[in-house]
Write a structure and sequence with these properties.
Chain B: Keywords: ATP-binding, Ligase, Manganese, Nucleotide-binding. The complex is a heterodimer of chains A (504) and B (326). Chain A has 17 helices and 12 strands. Chain A is of the alpha+beta class and 504 residues long. In chain A, the strands form 3 sheets. In chain A, strands 3-6-1-12 form a 4-stranded antiparallel beta sheet. Chain A is globular, with a radius of gyration of 29 Å. Chain B starts with a helix and ends in a 7-residue tail after the last helix. In chain B, the strands form 3 sheets. In chain B, strands 12-11-10-9-8-13-14 form a 7-stranded antiparallel beta sheet. A 4-stranded antiparallel beta sheet of chain B has the order 1-7-2-3. In chain B, strand 11 and strand 12 form a beta hairpin. Chain B has 2 domains: 207 residues, D-amino Acid Aminotransferase, Chain A, domain 1, CATH 3.30.470.20; 87 residues, Dna Ligase, domain 1, CATH 3.30.1490. Chain B is an alpha+beta fold and 326 residues long. Chains A and B meet through helix 16 and helix 17 of A and helix 1, helix 2 and strand 12 of B.
């Protein structure tokens, strides 16, 4: 036993360090243990990319502001060698970066934090000038007037008018709408039509908030000025839905002039976002506190990387479950950690779609693989052939699913294709050597494991703990080390060796 | 069976000294088997050369075909032989083994009587070289061996296949043995999980002590109806000494030796296994741990020093004797 002392000491140190770090984070940074007692905040990061020509560069981006549903807590910018200023122009907040000379690829980050806040104090800037009715050229003018007449007949106020217009846009058989949409964007057409009615409207850039998403584009949304209520009302030009959406963040006041780069070309802006939970009392405190510069945690990384870590930090939990199931239960899986990767894919595809997709791909793959084994190919060539068939299968399934109207089917592309190919190869060899039953046992075992891991990975509490308390990773490590020393029976062995208990 | 009975199982298994997979991996394979020496047993050609150097008897090697250019030499190698075996050096689970029992003017015959042409033999060798049968598809070499003339006294215990005897050897001491008899259900293969009958053998005498198929006790061979309790391996002492000598050859502390009995040459090492399975406990109706512990305590006391192969076998035969449960 004495030679095990260093081992147990190591596990003890890991456990103690992990727990201590977590308690420290809880006490000092007041991060709560459960996700419930918190307020949600969104960290949104804009990533501006362009190629500088070697001349002075000036980049102007519309900056977001407090809006219905969201309070802007703070904003910060990161770039190399650029001077950063915030300006306000006719009610629009702008972020401006400039430098005397820049060459080649340039990257600028802008980060803003929003508190989800139903009682946000929204500054209102009325429309700057009076509405001038838009005049279309002859044919389209007739169509526009017809559309407006039809919509007016079916509506009582501004809101229902816009909704009636959107309904006509969505009607594929409406020739007037088709004529307008031929040359105009839906949102621009809406603004122009409303101007003919004397209603002020504008196209604004908006972001769909989805936790942990990267490289998201902005969507055009329409805002309508309501003179009586003295407020801007948000409209979705596709669905016709009116009013603020708790998952929609408005980024500035003009979709067209979201980003303006002088002295560069090929400019592009994309967004990453992340939901974080902060305690309610911290949330108010945050409003006045500046960014903590000495914050050496994952949370000091750019949002894009943080979003990645949110998934990475869940993988040890998956590993722990796999270790538990294999060492204590004795479940057979095909490939030790394949179920974890499948579970990560399930998180993207949703569970049912994921399971159906997995079974479809693997079973079709097995059929094709059984034909390949007749061709008597060498291993590398065979696996490569399987990889290509898997890719083809995924594309065909995605297209079929889309055509049939199953949009969920598109997420099938999240499956790790190389891993699936190896799974198919291994299962096919297993089939030849040990029969179909063993394939079902191992395939089923993998699927059950993947579902359990998926369950843990999507659990709010697990997500909250792993992301907010990095110290818990050490605890998981210590648990895995301890399990690695377990020499008792596996659950399945109780059944296997049961005859031995009956022999006497 | 109630939940309470299930809860008692671990306790009962422990008192029987049954070893589980975790304990095998952690306390025996992990502790006593040096990973650097695995290639010696994973490659049948290396095992064979090692055994020949040590003077242990193995099926005679006719030749080795190492690359595609040598496939033509196959016909020259086998021209003077009536029966022979072609096998991949790194095959697993008996895959890729082709047995030819006799040949007549360029026509070759398998044990089932099916005919194989010279072209098909060459093709089979090419497949072996390409790695069709090896783990992970690695390139492999083909071994051409003399046919084992199987000892007929045991023939009635096996259906369409050669029964082999698995002896688990721990630190040079044979600790447990079983004979694996193929059945119709196992398709002529000697793997227990595929339906072969496992007959536990008494280390002292080589007599059957227990027999199982699909982990349940059987008394008669399901196909030949032979009474398994009459099974007695002759030349048992020599067989155990051959098995025990694998320790000197490989220096692997915990291995399974697979041995066949040849009519003329007696016991021969067929292959060695650095990760022997646990089914041998079910076949013997008893756990491995008490015997392993006994060997460990002997080694701890230092009394094993100076013991020869014969001395170790004598220790095992004296201490691990059991009476038949059949």
């Amino acid at each position: 036993m004495s030679r095990r002392v260093p081992f147990y000491l190591l596990t003890l140190i890991l456990l103690a360090a992990g727990i201590a770090l977590s308690i420290y984070r809880h006490d000092v940074y007041s991060v709560p243990w459960t996700p419930g007692e918190t307020r949600e905040q969104w960290v949104v990061e804009a990533r501006i990319k362009f190629i500088a020509k070697g001349d002075p560069v000036s980049v102007v981006m519309q900056a977001p502001d407090t809006q219905p549903g969201f309070t802007l807590i703070d904003e910060s910018a990161a770039s190399q060698g650029y001077g950063f200023t915030r300006i306000e122009q006719q009610g629009q907040r702008l972020a401006q970066w400039s430098v005397r000379e820049a060459q080649d690829h340039q990257l600028i980050y802008y980060k803003a934090r929003f508190l989800v806040d139903p009682g946000a104090q929204v500054p209102v800037t009325p429309p700057l000038q009076a509405v001038t009715p838009h005049i279309f050229e002859h044919q389209r003018q007739t169509a526009a007037v017809a559309l407006l007449e039809e919509a007016s007949r079916r509506s009582a106020d501004t809101v229902t008018l816009v909704r009636a217009l959107v309904t006509q846009f969505n009607d594929e058989g409406n020739q007037n709408a088709a004529l307008l949409l031929n040359s105009l964007n839906r949102e621009d057409a809406l603004v122009s039509l409303l101007s003919m009615k004397g209603i002020a409207a504008r196209v604004v850039p908006a972001l769909k908030l989805k936790d942990g998403r990267r490289r998201q584009p902005v969507l055009p949304m329409v805002e309508i000025w309501q003179e009586q209520e003295r407020q801007w009302l948000l409209f979705d030009p596709v669905s016709g839905r009116a009013g603020p959406d708790e998952r929609l963040l408005i980024w500035g006041q003009s979709y067209q002039s979201l980003l303006d780069v002088v002295g560069g070309r090929d400019s592009d802006i994309s967004f990453s976002m992340l939901a974080q939970d902060i305690p309610a009392r911290q949330a108010t405190w945050e409003k006045v506190q500046a960014e903590d510069l000495l914050n050496f945690s994952i949370h000091s990384l750019p949002v894009e990387e943080q979003a990645m870590f949110k998934t990475i930090m869940l993988i040890p939990v998956g590993a722990l479950i796999v270790v538990f199931l294999r060492i204590l239960v004795g479940i057979k899986t095909s490939g030790t950690f394949m179920p974890v990767l499948i579970a990560v894919a399930f998180v993207q595809t949703q569970l049912v779609t994921g399971i159906v997709g997995f079974i479809l791909i693997v079973s079709t793959g097995l059929l094709i693989r059984s034909y390949l084994s007749h061709l008597n190919l060498l291993l590398v060539a065979r696996i490569s052939a399987v990889i290509i068939t898997v890719i083809l299968m995924i594309s065909v399934m995605a297209v079929i699913a889309f055509r049939v109207g199953l949009v969920e089917g598109l997420s099938i592309t999240f499956f790790p294709m190389i891993i699936l190919s190896w799974t198919i190869e291994r299962m096919s060899v297993l089939w030849e050597e040990d029969g179909a039953k063993e394939v079902l046992v191992q395939g089923g075992g993998s699927l059950v494991t993947a579902v359990l891991v998926y369950g843990a990975m999507t659990d709010e509490l697990v997500r909250h703990l792993t992301f907010n308390f990095v110290g818990l990773q050490l605890v998981i490590l210590a648990l895995i080390l301890l399990l690695g020393n377990y020499t008792g029976y596996r659950l399945t062995e109780l059944r296997r060796f049961r005859p031995l208990t009956e022999s006497d | 069976m109630g939940i309470l009975d299930w809860l008692k199982i671990p306790q009962r298994l422990r008192s029987q000294g049954v070893m589980g997979m975790n304990q095998r991996n952690h306390s025996y394979i992990g502790r006593y088997n040096d990973r650097r020496r695995y290639p010696l047993v994973d490659d049948k050609l290396k095992t064979k050369l090692l055994a020949q150097q040590a003077g242990a008897s193995v099926p005679g090697l006719i030749g080795v075909i190492r690359h595609q250019g040598q496939v033509r030499q196959l016909s020259k190698m086998i021209s003077a032989l009536s029966g022979f075996v072609i096998k991949p050096a790194q095959g697993s689970g008996g895959k890729g083994i082709l047995v030819i029992t006799h040949q007549e003017q360029g026509r070759f015959f398998k044990p089932s009587g099916a005919e194989v042409s010279a072209y098909e033999l060459e093709r089979h060798v090419s497949n072996i070289l390409a790695g069709l049968f090896s783990l992970g598809g690695k390139n492999d070499v083909a071994l051409i061996e003399h046919l084992i003339e199987f000892d007929e006294q045991l023939a009635c215990f096996s259906y369409e296949g050669v029964p082999d005897i698995r002896v688990v050897v721990f630190q040079g001491f044979p600790v447990m043995a079983m004979m694996r008899c193929s059945t119709a259900a196992s398709d002529g293969k000697a793997n227990l999980h595929q339906g072969a009958v496992g007959v536990g053998l008494d280390i002292a005498s080589g007599q059957a002590v227990n027999a199982v198929q699909f982990d349940r006790q059987v008394c008669y061979h399901p196909d030949t109806q032979a009474d398994l309790k009459t099974l007695q391996v002759s030349g048992w002492g020599a067989l155990l000494e051959l098995a025990a000598s694998a320790w000197e050859m490989t220096e692997l502390g915990y291995i399974g030796t697979d041995i066949v009995l040849d009519k003329q040459h007696g016991p021969m090492i067929l292959e060695l296994n650095a990760r022997p399975g646990l089914a041998i406990q079910i076949a013997n109706g008893c756990g491995l741990l008490p015997r392993l512990k006994q060997v460990e305590s002997l080694i701890d006391s230092g009394q094993h020093q100076g013991l020869t192969v014969a001395g170790r076998v004598a220790f095992s035969r004296e201490h691990f004797a059991v009476s038949s449960m059949l």
